[in-house]
Design goal:
Blueprint (H helix, E strand, L loop, with lengths): L2 E3 L13 E3 L6 E3 L8 E6 L5 H16 L5 E7 L11 H10 L6 E3 L4 H5 L4 E2 L1 E5 L5 E5 L15 H11 L12 E4 L9 H4 L6
Parallel strand pairs: 4-5, 5-6
Antiparallel strand pairs: 1-10, 2-3, 4-8, 7-10, 8-9
Length: 199
């Protein structure tokens, strides 16, 4: 496992479109499915990653807590299942059912969507405003496996609430840290091959 931070995609970046299958419903989900939502949260995750396992119930709680608010949430898994079969769609479905996930979990077989978002790690979080411009990217909170801090989701929740209230996010955004996305051989993006600068 390579410990990897978010790339910290420039704020204001437009949300890339995507057309991916939901492992729960089998339906194809795209950006247009969330057109009526003021806020869109995109989460890159994997089933096997200990950093995701550490926060999995908070991921489910996010869905429940924002279910009746003007927020769309979608999770995406992009790992190479040839090297990491635990992230295969049928096992992702088991994972989603285990934690009672209330939003779509999509499978990005080609890894194109992960590249389009400049996603680098699991978990990786992106919050877009009503114009689908990036308002927040980075960590869920300060909790990490074995650091003893509670999993609260406070950083991500604060960002979502600010965007909902049309308030400007002015505080420092800290990168998420997690397992690197498991790229297919020869498919590693350039931004992953060079040292990532965070700041």
């Amino acid at each position: 496992m390579a410990l990897t931070p978010s790339t910290m995609l420039p704020l204001g970046t437009l949300a890339p479109d995507f057309y991916l299958p939901d492992v729960l419903s089998g339906q194809t989900i795209s950006l247009a499915n969330f057109a009526d939502k003021k806020v869109l949260v995109v989460i890159f995750l994997s089933r096997h990653c200990p950093f995701v396992q550490h926060i999995k119930f908070q991921l489910a709680k996010l869905g429940q807590d924002y279910k009746n608010k003007n927020v769309g949430i979608v999770a995406i898994s992009s790992n190479d299942i040839n090297t990491h079969p635990d992230d295969a769609p049928e096992l992702l479905k088991d994972f989603a059912q285990e934690i009672d996930l209330s939003y779509p979990l999509l499978y990005d077989e080609s890894q194109k969507v992960a590249k389009d978002f400049f996603a680098a790690c699991t978990p990786d979080f992106f919050v877009f405003n009503a114009n689908r411009k990036l308002a927040y990217r980075g960590q869920l909170d300060n909790s990490r496996p074995k650091n003893g801090l509670p999993v609260t989701g406070q950083d991500l929740r604060k960002a979502i609430n600010y965007v909902l209230a049309d308030e400007q996010i002015t505080w420092e955004q800290k990168p998420s840290i997690g397992c690197n996305i498991k790229w297919k051989s020869g498919n590693e993006p350039v931004y992953y091959q060079v040292p990532v600068t965070v700041g």
